[in-house]
Amino acid sequence: MRHRVKGRKLGRRTAQREALVNGLVTELLKRERITTTEARAREVRGVAEKVITKGRRGTLNDRRIAAALLTEKQVVRKLFDDIGPRFATRPGGYTRMFKLMPRKGDAAAMALLELVGEE
Predict the structure, then answer these.
(1) What is the residue-level pLDDT of the chain in tens, covering all 119 positions?
(2) Is the pTM of this model over 0.85?
(3) How far apart are CA 20 and CA 14, in angstroms?
(4) CATH number of domain containing 40
(5) Strand order in the sheet with 110-115
(6) What CA–CA distance (Å, rounded) separates 63 from 67?
(7) Which stretches of the chain are assigned E, i.e. beta strand?
(8) Residue 6 domain flag
(9) Burial call 85-105: b when 16+ CB within 10 Å, e when fewer
């Protein structure tokens, strides 16, 4: 039974899975849109939401936590200078996910994950 078991394994060991998720969150914040498998997108979405919330707050501790999670310094800068203030009045829901056609090679379910723009 999977009662109270949180998260997906994504076919990797813990360190590899954390590195994968951190890299995908970094790319999402850098490009503001990524295409990946649906399972990875669902896993990345929660982490990205939490990091953007830290970017909104902008304390020194939040910046250190984000720097430990993200793999590029300029993405940390972008998070606190551009993305955080952009979502300052939004109470959550910073990302949106669209399901795409299955991948041609192995028919894996694909998804587009992007930051919500200012509509």
Answers:
(1) 989 888 899 999 999 999 999 999 999 999 999 999 999 999 999 999 999 999 999 999 999 999 999 999 999 999 999 999 999 999 999 999 999 999 999 999 999 999 998 55
(2) yes
(3) 10
(4) 3.90.1030.10
(5) 33-37, 110-115, 95-99
(6) 6
(7) 33-37, 95-99, 110-115
(8) no
(9) ebbeeeeeebbeeeeeeeeee
